[in-house]
């Protein structure tokens, strides 16, 4: 094209993508024939405009354009598709805005539509789960002379679900699909953050506590003299164990009017005696320890219903399992030896239940516990000159780390929630603060009015420390100030409150999950149990109820969210109480 030739300005290209409100209204009124005519006009305008622009391009540019975008017809078709897609999107958006502006309340939407909106589809579904039959699974594991299951057409998936519900009760809340409009108040993950969550709801009132006696959990009393009562870590199940070598599981259900519970299973173990029973760290197993006559560790699988007996090397005098410590992360189980190996601590694998290693100490082992962070195992014990020692063992390598010698015989101990400090009490009435990182005693306080400390407990929030003694007195301290003053030379701290409701040795101190209730009990006298209101620093007046005899308290536990309280006494009974202030289990 010559430079002198004047090029006409192309007619304005009317974009099919930019749509004003006026064009929207016009297009809604156009008929099918009108829309077709409009598209033809736009195509002709676009083609004319493209030919004028192409006159300035070289042959190479045109060939490259055809290779990338195709010919003229293909390019027009591509833009038409994009324009149609955008028109459709804007039309849907306009309709949704019209619906919002129409003022239709959500309650007026039909129930079926609301349900469809709230239903969530599973991320992944295995089609084989629906096809697999119970007989196929059983026969796959049947060998030799064992009788096969013939003709069973039941769904294996339904069988497993019923099996789970028979052990743990109904499906856990986290496994249920929740609607979009459901409240988050009952979310189990949120309810575990008790320090922040409880501050938003009403505080537990002082004075009288509303405590409803449900019944004895073990109404048949087949467990014998009770040794343990414990609630499941996450399910609505309670465990009761006794000297009859029987462990019973009870499902506890909360309803609007009352609580319903029933025995789901009773397991009798092939042992001469039972010394301890506890849930595993993940809650899928029950660990049962035999005594001097039967030194085996029994493991009951709650899902399969099978019992496994753990045998250990014959050259080792293994634990009598009077006390079982389970590492918080579930990796190890610990027991102490007897006889010539009373000074030994045995590590058992939490998964395979096989013996791993033995740590031999200089003195007899009496008690032990893991730190909340699982890094340390603390062991106490010994006689004579060794009664005032605490031994630190690595939770990972199972090797002895160091021994801290205190000034008094150790009676009770506990870790702080952060695992940085170990607090010990015992003869002499002192509170020893041991730095777990330095493995040395950094401070010693005089427990006010105490001669022999017998129990000690941290509140879950970490702000309070309760210390009980042999006179039945319980002192409550501000734990933060107690630990922050370890480097100073301040005088002995004064307790925030001195509780004198008991008159015999304090054996049990237990805070509930929100640190609002402190339960204290003594096994030396009948009815020696009290519930203390932490915020007001007063005891609940109506518990124990007048005229009621609860016997001597041997074990006590709160449920996961403090909805229930249960304690075992010397009369072979595990009493169950409902605390209606806490709606959840």
UniProtKB/TrEMBL annotation:
Region (Disordered): 1-57, 86-121
InterPro entries in alphabetical order: Utp18 (IPR045161), WD40/YVTN_repeat-like_dom_sf (IPR015943), WD40_repeat_dom_sf (IPR036322), WD40_rpt (IPR001680)
Pfam family, any one: WD40
Localisation: Nucleus, Nucleolus
Keywords recorded for this protein, A-Z: Nucleus, Repeat, rRNA processing, WD repeat
Transmembrane region(s): none
Keyword Cytoplasm: no
Basic residues bias: start-end ranges: 24-38
Broad class of the protein's primary localization: nucleus
Bias type Acidic residues, positions: 91-109
GO biological process: rRNA processing
An annotated GO cellular component: small-subunit processome
Recorded family membership: Belongs to the WD repeat UTP18 family.
PANTHER family with a match to the protein in the record: U3 SMALL NUCLEOLAR RNA-ASSOCIATED PROTEIN 18 HOMOLOG, WD-REPEAT PROTEIN-RELATED
UniProt-recorded name of the protein: U3 small nucleolar RNA-associated protein 18 homolog
Organism the protein comes from: Notodromas monacha
Taxonomic classification: Eukaryota, Metazoa, Ecdysozoa, Arthropoda, Crustacea
């Amino acid at each position: 094209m010559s430079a002198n030739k004047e090029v006409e300005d192309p007619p304005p290209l009317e974009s099919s993508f930019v749509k004003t409100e006026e064009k929207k209204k016009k297009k809604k009124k156009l008929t099918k024939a009108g829309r077709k005519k409009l598209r033809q006009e736009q195509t002709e305008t676009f083609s004319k405009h493209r030919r004028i622009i192409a006159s300035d391009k070289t042959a190479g540019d045109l060939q490259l354009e055809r290779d990338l975008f195709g010919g003229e017809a293909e390019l027009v078709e591509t833009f038409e598709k994009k324009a149609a897609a955008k028109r459709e999107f804007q039309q849907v958006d306009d309709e949704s805005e019209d619906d919002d502006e129409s003022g239709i309340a959500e309650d007026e939407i039909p129930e079926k539509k609301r349900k469809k909106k709230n239903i969530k589809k599973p991320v992944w579904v295995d089609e084989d789960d629906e096809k697999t039959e119970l007989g196929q699974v059983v026969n796959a594991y049947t060998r030799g002379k064992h009788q096969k299951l013939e003709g069973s057409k039941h769904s294996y998936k339904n069988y497993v679900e019923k099996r789970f519900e028979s052990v743990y009760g109904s499906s856990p809340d986290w496994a249920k699909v929740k609607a979009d409009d459901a409240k988050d108040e009952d979310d189990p993950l949120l309810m575990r953050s008790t320090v922040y969550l409880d501050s938003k709801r009403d505080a537990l009132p002082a004075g009288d506590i509303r405590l409803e006696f449900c019944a004895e959990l073990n109404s048949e009393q087949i467990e014998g003299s009770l040794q343990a009562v414990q609630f499941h870590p996450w399910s609505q199940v309670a465990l009761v164990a006794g000297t009859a070598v029987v462990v019973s599981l009870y499902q506890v259900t909360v309803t609007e009017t009352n609580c319903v519970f029933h025995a789901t299973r009773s397991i009798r173990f092939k042992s001469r005696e039972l010394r301890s029973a506890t849930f595993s760290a993940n809650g899928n197993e029950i660990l049962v320890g035999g005594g001097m006559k039967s030194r085996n560790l029994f493991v009951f699988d709650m899902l399969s219903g099978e019992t496994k007996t753990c045998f250990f090397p014959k050259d080792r005098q293994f634990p009598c399992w009077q006390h079982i410590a389970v590492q918080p992360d579930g990796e190890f189980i610990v027991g102490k030896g007897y006889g010539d190996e009373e000074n030994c601590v045995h590590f058992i694998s939490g998964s395979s239940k096989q013996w791993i290693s033995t740590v031999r100490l200089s003195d007899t082992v009496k008690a032990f516990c893991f730190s909340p962070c699982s890094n340390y195992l603390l062991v106490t014990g010994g006689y004579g000159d060794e009664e005032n020692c605490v031994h630190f063992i690595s939770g990972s390598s199972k090797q002895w780390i160091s021994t801290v010698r205190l000034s008094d015989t150790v009676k009770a101990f506990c870790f702080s929630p952060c695992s940085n400090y170990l607090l010990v009490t015992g003869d002499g009435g002192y509170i020893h603060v041991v730095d777990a990182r330095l493995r040395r005693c950094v401070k010693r306080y005089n427990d006010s009015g105490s001669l022999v400390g017998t129990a000690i407990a941290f509140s879950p929030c970490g702000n309070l420390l309760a210390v009980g003694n042999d006179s039945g007195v319980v002192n409550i301290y501000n734990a933060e100030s107690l630990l922050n003053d370890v480097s100073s030379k301040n005088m002995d701290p004064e307790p925030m409150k001195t509780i004198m409701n008991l008159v015999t040795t304090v054996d049990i101190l237990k805070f509930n999950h929100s640190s609002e209730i402190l339960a204290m009990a003594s096994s030396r006298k009948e009815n020696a149990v009290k519930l203390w209101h932490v915020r007001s620093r007063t005891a609940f007046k109506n518990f124990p109820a007048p005229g009621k005899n609860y016997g001597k308290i041997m074990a006590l536990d709160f449920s996961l969210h403090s909805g229930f309280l249960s304690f075992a006494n010397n009369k072979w009974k595990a009493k169950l109480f409902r605390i209606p202030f806490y709606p959840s289990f």
